[in-house]
Please model this.
Amino acid sequence: MNYGIVIKVLGSLLLFEAIALVPSLGISLYTGEHDSQAFTYTILILITVGFAMVKIPNKSRRIKSKEALTIVTLGWILVSFFGSLPFVFSGSIPSFVDAFFETISGLTTTGATIIDDIEVLPKGILFWRSFTHWLGGMGILVLTLAILPAIGVGGFQIFKAESPGPISDKLVPRMKDTAKILYTAYLGITILQIILLYIGGLSFYESLIHTFGTVGTGGFSTRNSSIGAFDSSYIVLVIAFFMIVSGVNFSLYYDLYKRRWRGIIRNSELKLYLSIIAACVLLITINLNGKLYDSLFDTFKHALFQVASFITTTGYATTNYEEWTSFSRAILFFLMFVGGSAGSTGGGVKVIRLLILFKLVKREIAKILHPRAMIPVQINGKVISSDVVASVTSFFFLYLILFAVGTLLISLEGIGFLSASSSVAATLGNIGPGFEFVGPTQTYSQFTVPSKLFLSLLMLFGRLELFTVFILLTPSFWEK
Amino acid sequence: MHIIIVGAGKLGYKLAETLSQENSNVVIIDIDNKALERVNNNLDVLTVKANGVELKVLKQLNIKNFDLMIAVTSSDETNILVSSMAKKLGCHRVMARVRNPEYGNQLDYIKRQMDIDYIANPELETAKEIAKYLLQTHAVHMEDFAKGKVGMVDFRVKNIQDMVGKKLRELDIPQCVLIAAILRNGEIIIPHGDTELLSTDIIYVIGQKESINSFSKEIGTPINKKAVKKALILGGGKAGYYLANKLIQNHVAVKIIERDRERCKYLAEQFPNALVIHGDGTDSNLLSEENVFEMDALISLTGYDEENLLLALLGKQYGINKVIAKVSRPNYIPIIEKLGIDVAMNPVTITASGILRFIQGGRVASLSLLLGGQAEVLEIIAKENSKVVENKLSSLGLPKGMIIGAVVHKGNVIIPDGNAVIYPGDRVIVFCLQSEVASIEKLFYRQKGGLINELWDSYKGTRKSTSI
Model:
């Protein structure tokens, strides 16, 4: 392994994090609250460590898959580590483990929080908390890649390791340009939502915070009762719309820009994604109609919002869905496993993997009828190679194994089965809130320290799509 | 520049590698997933799994927005068809690889009728290179630049007794000669005054031609002025065919040993003046029967790199003067220089050099790739207003991996030092590591300009790449 380049790239990542902290510092200086020192110290530490790492001499600039995997996993851990310092320094979250949990939850766009009362925290700290969603959504390394000139050839390896989905394709020949295009789309969507929320009567600050939480599909809010606090149908619908938008493969927005309509309309992942949303909203609306809410529109509104929030793994809430019927809650529970599309900011298993698995099952059935038939697995008219199919099935298996093992371990806390299983599903799928013990009105603060660390690891597993992290845990990876 | 390459084989890969490092946006098409995966893992290019012959595919890729298409699949016919179609669809320039000797005589006709700008024939070009080496009377293999005024040769340091272990600044070398690069353990390094020479090194020397000749005499490398009279070619494939043809034209007695009976028959019909022997080149009885000891040169051109290398070593063992092996795969390049074979010809590198020279068009007067493309030697005519002219070299901030080997100013060859100045119209011979090729663009072609221009260029870069 080429440790020189790994350290160098990680160093530039930390320098980049220092820059990313500047807006939060600005806000804390503007509001004049006590947290500005916390940011200043963190930035100084990041600059010192980052520069020291960048200056380490390296023999070659080549990044192979091994280096890329190390860079991505260690990069996320390092950024989370240093990103949690402002919380500790400012005293907002005194325990380091809690602060680390909060930061990694932000960066992985999970949105699980250990803060019981958000509204008392300083504005700069809350801004940083939500800004981590935005950074982590499209991948912080991809962003570094787009800005830094130094990383060339190995860039695609990093991109592959960080971006979600079984097949990551470039849009244009250069990795850097691909990263720029994706971030332009991301930025465009962000700005549009900020404007729409601002028009809806939110303060500029709260528009920013909730936009970060939405487009990053994170779920951090400034209010204890999440989006429900605003009590505005307009806000609810805007956020629901942008959650759904952020769960779509971002390369489709490039197609949109290029006016390749056919590619978009015929994209089977998009079709399935939208169909799942439509079906679930319909089922919940019918199921809840007349039971909890005053009007059909209200029922529809809450159903749409909650379905969008769960499938895109955002984790915002407009209502206490714990009061819903068990059928509706079961739908939400299973949506936790679906997740967004490949190449989106959403987490979970991803719609495309389910689509491939579904086609695989279809093929098995056809093969029983016609044992000698050759049936390729096709998505969007393209044959999915057997390597990808194999990686999808093993991903799904590993996901379920992690879910099962995680549930067993968290059950040691002595909480109910639904609480344990939904907390694991919510962290592994990067959703945030779950059911009962970790429901929309609860937080993760009651967990013990080992459980918090374990759940943090699960969030990282989920965000980096299992294998990237798993490989680093195998001894053979480190053998020379 | 936007470039599309059809076929991700050895040559396609090499081209994609070189071109993407030179700041071009490269798209590479192949039908083989494995080949594309290899490209994806190592290069910063866009891969597309599709068949380039399909009109639909070319249209989908928006072929009319590309500056260049290079068709290098394994089939000549496919290459011709794809490039011709691309041209008709509006691709600016197209190239095809065509290797079949049957097409060899009608390439010009094909080029004209099919509207193809450049046809690359690796075997023919390899054969030409080999013939050039065999027929020249120089002591050493020399690359020519600036219309033969400047030459570049490589020496083994171990043959030069008083060089080993010395630093470059302590060496007594003539004024008109420069040690431009050192090949050490399969890697090219650009030396400076304090670099110490090791006995295993190979040095690349650039300079005025006469000076180089006298230099090589001075340091006492074995000089052999005898041109080749009798050559033994092992393997009668395409390259063997072209080489035999070339050598016979130059009145060299040629023996070809070929394993395939039908091929032997064909070669015998084509070359009545050559002796075609049906047999196995690795059979030592056959070789001694055919008086291998009396040959001036042995060229192994079979389809297997390993066999070629071993046969060449065997030839050296027999005491043959010039021994050449064809080695297509880049994997062996780092060790070849250690084996003691005179020259290892790499058709891929030779063809890539040819194609790159064509792409650079008028901008680069000549170009050769060294050591599997680790470094390039370019001859560039300095333009007015480029950054490189009318400035002291020391003030240009040349990157470490680049050295200006020679400047031909008004017909005089100058080996520049830090105080030298390049004037518009001068021919500049630049030795450059692959990693620094991009800065050639900056130094020689871009107009002088400040930070704003740089930023604007990088912005244009992104915009251009999104226009595909």
Remarks:
- The beta strands of chain A are 378-379, 382-383.
- The two ends of chain A are 8 Å apart (CA to CA).
- The mean pLDDT of chain A is 88.
- The longest strand of chain A covers residues 378-379.
